């Protein structure tokens, strides 16, 4: 199938921003808007966003990937994932105008972009689904808990660790200090937990997912701290557990993959899973 890759420049607020539409010659009626994580731009780590966009478009799915204000080829101050609603809304406007065939829209995001689209989706009826990869729900407490559970247990089971101990090539003082800091962090409350007007990030992500009643695919890397923090949230928070049990939410765990799916085989798993899920909506 033929695909046109069309560069676009458009306005987002008072800034000039850029993106690429991947438009198949025989497009389906469902399209994917790829939202970037930060600091990141529309090509993606290891060209992941370009590769995925071309994979989907070759199978008839129109795709738009774009830069936030202040990133890549776009002007203005850099935006973070919690201030990206205008960027996403403007990109949807342009995408749907460019691709008149699109009747159902899916937002796709990795890491803090996954959190960003969870915040945005309940606010816009045009959004028909979400693909969230390794959603960002990090707090100092969650990072410390996962680090204690995952890293230190693996270290104690490692032959390399005990070899260093036996050969006295091991920094006991530094390791004990690091361990103590993680224990302290695991028991520490986040700065927003005492502020009722601003929920902690994990609760805001879950609350937003709860308000979005359409289909969601969550893809989690097996070898990634961010993914493990999300898994920990789901396992320990009753609200999160309830939301994840909905029939509209699918979860795919990809064993061995790192945060950005840096190997070709890992990227292919993401591409295939995304395509299959989107075309079956």
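^ structure tokens above, recovered residues below v
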């Amino acid at each position: 199938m033929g695909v046109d890759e069309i560069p676009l420049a458009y306005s987002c607020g008072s800034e000039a921003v850029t993106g690429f539409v991947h438009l198949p010659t025989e497009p389906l009626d469902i399209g994917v808007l790829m939202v970037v994580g930060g600091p990141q731009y529309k090509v993606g780590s290891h060209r992941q966003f370009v590769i995925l966009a071309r994979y989907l478009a070759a199978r008839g799915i129109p795709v738009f990937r774009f830069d936030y204000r202040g990133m890549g080829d776009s002007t203005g101050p850099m935006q973070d994932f919690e201030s990206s609603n205008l960027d996403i809304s403007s990109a949807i406007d342009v995408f749907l105008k460019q691709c008149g065939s699109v009747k159902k829209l899916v937002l796709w995001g990795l890491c803090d972009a996954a959190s960003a689209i969870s915040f945005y989706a309940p606010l816009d009826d045009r959004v028909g689904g979400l693909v969230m990869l390794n959603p960002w729900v990090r707090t100092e407490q969650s990072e410390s808990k996962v680090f204690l559970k995952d890293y230190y247990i693996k270290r104690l089971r490692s032959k390399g660790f005990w070899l260093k101990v036996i050969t006295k090539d091991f920094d006991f003082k530094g390791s004990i200090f690091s361990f103590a800091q993680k224990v302290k962090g695991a028991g520490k409350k986040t700065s927003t937990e005492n502020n009722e007007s601003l929920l902690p990030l994990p609760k805001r992500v879950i609350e937003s997912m709860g308000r979005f009643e359409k289909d969601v695919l969550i893809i989690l890397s097996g070898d990634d701290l961010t993914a493990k923090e999300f898994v920990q949230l789901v396992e320990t928070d009753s609200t999160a557990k309830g939301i994840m049990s909905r029939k509209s939410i699918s979860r795919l765990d990809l064993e061995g993959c790192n945060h950005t799916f840096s190997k070709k085989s890992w990227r292919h798993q993401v591409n295939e899973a995304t395509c299959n899920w989107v075309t079956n909506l």
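The chain has two domains: 3-139+200-279, 143-186.
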